[in-house]
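Friendly challenge for the regulars: who can give me the structure tokens for this chain first? No prize, just bragging rights.
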Amino acid sequence: MNNLSPKVQNQLGMLQQIQQQLQTILSQKAQYEMAVREAKRAQEEISDAAEDAVMYLSVGTVMMQKKKDIINTKLAEKVETLELRIKSLEKQEKMMQGKFEQLQAQIKAALEGKGAPTAA
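First reply, four minutes later:
Bragging rights claimed.
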């Protein structure tokens, strides 16, 4: 690493940062996808319940009794919001992946260019 130019060292540092950002994005995306699955599963469960069934909605640390249609609406809103967040993260992921690949190609070219004269 010491025999690399400062520019290449800087690019490697940037590559590591991008990789960490990508991992964070992927982690958040996985969490949101899991929350969507849970909300959809809850929607499926309550769809089979009677209209007058006793249901509760978690609001922070409190459980509140609510009507089925209200809970269903809240779940639908939650799914919609989470899916929008997932789409946003997918755009960020695509952008970061492009930057990663571009920087990786630049580093490879710099290393190959540097390595060629010493091998000759």
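The longest helix spans residues 68-119. The chain has two helices and two strands. Your move, everyone else.
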